[in-house]
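Q: May I have one protein plus its fold?
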Amino acid sequence: MPLGFFGEKVGHYSEEKEEPLEINGRRLPGVYIRWLIGPKEKAPNFAMRVIRMEPGATIPRHKHPWEHEQFILEGEGVFIIGDRSYPVRPGYYVYIPPNVEHEYRNTGSRDLVFLCLVPLSTGPTGCVEEERS
């Protein structure tokens, strides 16, 4: 989707390419990402992505120096944040603070789909842009 005159972007998420999700160079089976807004659009503060996890898929325990804001669109799962497990389903929102270990599991019988917003600049510790290939 091309940017508008002012740099705005309006589109349908299905117009963006879905790619396999990788963490630390390792492809995660059954997990996919669509970048809706991010460095490519010259967004100054946040990236918006859609994550899709097939039934049984897991994003293993990991942490980052940046926060996550998430909103569940479809499916059911469990988000593990620190040592606590939270069942999630459509309409639930999640905040994960920086440097807190977290894990995602699709425990349902259909895809788990959620919006994931992260800051683009995380200061001297790194940048989310490095995740995007």
